[in-house]
Amino acid sequence: METLAKHRSIFLLVVFALIFSCKRKNNDLEIFAHFKNSAATILVDTTAYKKTTAKRIFGSHTAVSFDRLKVKKQYTRGARAMAYYSILLEDIQTQTKVCRWLAERNGALFFDDTTSINQGMEQIYICCTGTNDCEPSLFVSEGKLFWTCGEKPSCSNPEKSCKISKTVLLD
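and the corresponding structure tokens:
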């Protein structure tokens, strides 16, 4: 009887530890920015973030050096207009813009690295390099979200001076 009580105590201890660990993981999200009264306050070291992100996406010997980092509230294009938040990194000299989705919870903006019904769209860094209609855009088509560059949901073509690439960075 004594061993049964001991096993039950250990079992309950393990269950509570697992519950606490799962809850803690959910609450320990690194907040990138806070959005309040239509203004974003970035909470990370922007200089370090711009430098690290450029190296991770383009390699350590890249010519890309981001001049600007903005948090933006935008609306999807296509089948429906849905509000979303994103970061936008810009390098004026190379005409490169990189964008990534920011999840929002109670005004806190953060990167969501969990898989979702959007096929990982939240983890993608969309990279647009060029002029003329070369802004990162999020489209809705047939109920699915996808990133592209420009105002139309099309692949790049020879007439369009915009190069598109997508990257997922795993920590």
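(Above: one complete record from the training split.) The CA atoms of residues 124 and 168 lie 5 Å apart.
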